[in-house]
Automatic annotation (TrEMBL):
Residues 30-386 form the Aminoacyl-transfer RNA synthetases class-II family profile domain. This is Histidine--tRNA ligase. It comes from Algicella marina. The keyword Ribosomal protein does not apply. Signal peptide: none annotated.
Length: 500
């Protein structure tokens, strides 16, 4: 009787929903971008910091933009000692914990930058993943508006350093204190009872943040009874009266011809609010400091429509927006949008110490910025592979490894073909698939004569698929026979010609 085959349950080779894999050139481009960003941060005097990817849920707090699910936005689990831990959702909450933990050993102000992935347990969508990279810089321990002005200037310099031309971006600056002053004047914020009208304020802030997408009419509807979108779905509004909505709309439309005009308009809107007046004074100081450094409104401007989503901001907030147009998946033109943001968060460290510690910082969305550079055609080409030393005689692997060692010691990326060398054409196809710039060939005849063949693969790639023999390969015009002793120099020259 035949034995029944046992069914093997094999795992599916797919990544989890909302995550993706990155290959070759994508990883290289990200590394190069991170190097460019951190070089600017370092030049501004910030020191590197690397924290654990895992924090306690208590240390992270509940500051995600999704106010309807304040703790659901993180990947969390309970440890064996019943403590709850989670993957970090940003780089700022871990910084607050670090500063509180090591404050007696750190300089004040403490200036740090950090790079790494963050995780958000949110619904994924096109271009929206649950893991993404951030590159942050923060100053902790000073209330000076000069720290905020410096962050804005550094953000502008960073965008230009990675390849975004002046005129293709704008850094927008606003203040949460000014917004609080306007909401106080509108009757939806009571300084003596901060928890009152919290739901209405949340709706107002989210409505302001959607100005670019919904336009003034859509925002006004959300400030009032609510808004029905094109699909028929209805979003509840903040329930403000017409007079209250007028005040908020006036705030969003307060941007004037220059910073002075905008600041004057804002000063009139905040009325007698102490918070609002303090925020306007801060914006005025930051604008003056930026102007003194030569950062005009073509790079950084005061814009009341910027509110930022995270709940821990307490003062100036800023957002970098790319202003050039791209085409969406349906071929429609639209602006690329925001790639970085930040602000002042003077209460975050206080959660640990009980004492207010002023802080301000910025976070660059690295993956968004990479996508922008690809859209502009600044990156996204094929990666250049290594020089490949082909294998003509299996028993001479030592000779081929010696060639590779010479090339590597000269700073040239190189490898020996390690697949089945029986079919020479397969070696060439492999080199073509890797984008290799040069192939090196040394058969027994070349070995006896003290020469090698080197081939410019950029010229020969179109013919590689039809080659079957060593003789076919040698017949190509891009191939040179050189002395074995000239290998390194000739390969360097061939690569230089290809790059030039």
């Amino acid at each position: 009787m035949a034995k029944k085959k046992t069914k093997v349950n094999r795992p599916k080779a797919i990544q989890p929903r909302g995550f993706r894999d990155y290959f070759g050139v994508e990883v290289t481009e990200r590394a190069e971008m991170l190097s460019a960003i951190t070089e600017v941060y370092h030049r501004y005097g910030f020191d590197a910091l690397e924290t654990s990817a895992v924090e306690t849920v208590e240390a992270l707090g509940s500051f995600l933009p999704d106010v309807d699910r304040p703790n659901a936005g993180v990947f969390a689990w309970q440890d064996e000692d019943e403590a709850w831990m989670a993957l970090r959702y940003d780089m700022t909450a871990p910084l607050a914990r670090v500063y509180a933990q090591y404050r007696n050993d750190l300089p004040t102000p403490y200036r740090r930058y950090t790079v790494g992935p963050v995780w958000r347990n949110e619904k994924p969508g096109p271009g929206r993943f649950r893991q993404f990279y951030q590159c942050d810089a923060d100053t902790v321990g000073t209330a000076s508006m000069a720290a905020d002005a410096e962050i804005c200037a550094m953000l502008a310099d960073t965008l230009e350093a990675v390849g975004i031309d002046r005129g293709d971006y704008i850094v927008r600056l606003n203040s949460r204190e000014v917004l609080n002053g306007v909401m106080e004047a509108a009757g939806v914020l009571n300084p003596d009872d901060p928890d009152a009208h919290a739901e209405e304020r949340g709706i107002v802030m989210r409505a302001i943040d959607k100005l670019d997408r919904l336009g003034p009419g859509g925002v006004r509807a959300l400030l009032g009874a609510g808004r029905k979108d094109e699909s028929g779905d209805f979003t509840d509004g903040a329930g403000l009266s017409d007079a209250q909505a007028d005040l908020v709309m006036g705030f969003m439309e307060a941007r004037g011809a220059d910073a002075a005009a905008t600041i004057a308009a804002l000063r009139g809107l905040v009325g007698g609010s102490a918070s609002g007046a303090r925020g306007v004074d801060g914006l005025e100081e930051i604008a003056a400091l930026l102007d003194a450094q030569g950062y005009g409104p073509d790079r950084i401007l005061v814009d009341p429509s910027v509110v930022r989503g995270l709940g821990y901001y307490t003062g100036p907030v800023y957002e970098a927006e790319l202003t050039f147009e791209i085409e969406d998946e349906k071929g429609r033109k639209q602006q690329f949008g925001s790639v970085a943001g930040g602000g002042r968060y003077d209460d975050l460290v206080k959660r640990f110490t009980g004492q207010e510690v002023p802080a301000t910082g910025v976070s660059i969305g690295v993956d968004r910025l990479l996508a922008a550079l690809r859209a502009k055609g600044r990156i996204g080409g094929t990666s250049v592979g290594p020089v490949v030393v082909t294998v003509m005689d299996r028993d001479r692997m030592g000779d081929y490894q010696a060639m590779v060692a010479e090339l590597r010691n000269a700073g040239i990326r190189a490898e020996v073909y390690l697949g089945n060398p029986k079919n020479f054409g397969n070696q060439l196809k492999y080199a073509d698939a890797r984008g290799c710039p040069v192939a090196v060939i040394e058969g027994s005849d070349e070995k006896a004569r003290g020469v090698v063949q080197i081939k410019d693969l950029a010229l020969g790639a179109r013919l590689a698929a039809d080659m079957e023999t060593h003789e076919d390969w040698k017949a190509q015009p891009a191939q040179m026979e050189i002395a074995r002793s000239d290998l390194v120099a000739q390969v360097q020259a061939m690569i230089a010609r290809a790059e030039g």
